[in-house]
From TrEMBL:
SUPFAM superfamilies: RING/U-box (SSF57850). It catalyses: S-ubiquitinyl-[E2 ubiquitin-conjugating enzyme]-L-cysteine + [acceptor protein]-L-lysine = [E2 ubiquitin-conjugating enzyme]-L-cysteine + N(6)-ubiquitinyl-[acceptor protein]-L-lysine. InterPro entries: Znf_RING (IPR001841), Znf_RING/FYVE/PHD (IPR013083). Keywords: Metal-binding, Zinc, Zinc-finger. This is RING-type E3 ubiquitin transferase. One of its GO terms (cellular component) is cytoplasm. Its EC number is 2.3.2.27. It comes from the Eukaryota. It is an enzyme of class 2 (transferase). One of its GO terms (molecular function) is ubiquitin protein ligase activity. It comes from Hibiscus trionum (Flower of an hour).
Length: 222
């Protein structure tokens, strides 16, 4: 069974130079995660590595539940138990999220970049699952959706309880990108997964990430 060896978190110094983007309807943490799988007998020996990038809304990430979901997804392939995530990883990441969000240098900044290094010990006698290598190859990266897929979004004018997009999982009354409720005649767009957002909001989101904000449906990328 794998166990945590060390965790280090710091803000990317380059983000202090980044100017706020007034076009973004939400504030983001962009987190670059490096995972190092090391030998328990010789921690200086790296057995496997992974590099993941995650973009999350700051207002949604400042809660233990949301942090736990993201972290569990990050380390799912490394044999770390949910209990260990709760006690050894989540508290540090949640604490840093609140710290970074409140730093004077970050006030008014819409994008805050930070990095996490996690060292995970494994016994050299334990076989490293081949699925780890495959998962690293297939890891979801947060890339912009293709321009053609954004252009192909189904668009309509919102009409309460009558809109043709209002069905199934798309029956929410508000946009989960900007958190505002839909109003009559708002221009909305439906993702292929049937989730509905303000058109401008989802276009700006997809220009940053190809994943649906609600269900992580993957839009095509270039």
């Amino acid at each position: 069974m794998a166990s945590l060896y060390d965790i280090t978190i710091w803000q990317d110094h380059e983000s202090s130079l980044e100017q706020p983007d007034s076009d973004l309807p939400f504030n983001l943490f962009i987190i670059d995660l490096q995972i190092y799988c090391v030998s328990s007998l010789h921690p200086e020996t790296t057995l496997e590595t992974a590099n993941l990038s995650v973009a999350v809304r700051r207002d949604m990430f400042l809660s233990e539940e949301n942090v736990r979901s993201v972290v569990c997804a990050m380390v799912a392939d490394w044999g770390v138990t949910p209990e260990f995530v709760d006690t050894a990883i989540v508290p540090d990441i949640l604490s840093y999220a609140w710290y970074a969000n409140g730093l004077p240098v970050n006030l008014g900044r819409q994008v805050i970049k930070w990095r996490i290094e996690i060292f995970i010990e494994v016994s050299p006698y334990d076989e490293i699952d081949e699925s780890i290598e495959e998962s690293l190859t297939n890891s979801v990266k947060f890339k912009p959706a293709s321009k053609s897929s954004i252009k192909a979004l189904k668009r309509a004018r919102y009409l309460d309880d009558e809109d043709e997009l209002h069905h199934g999982s798309s029956s929410r009354k508000g946009c989960t990108v900007c958190l505002d409720e839909f109003s009559d005649s708002d221009e909305v767009a439906s993702m292929p997964c049937d989730h509905v957002y303000h058109y401008d909001c989802i276009v700006k989101w997809l220009e940053t990430s190809h994943l649906c904000p609600l269900c992580r449906y993957q839009m095509p990328i270039d």
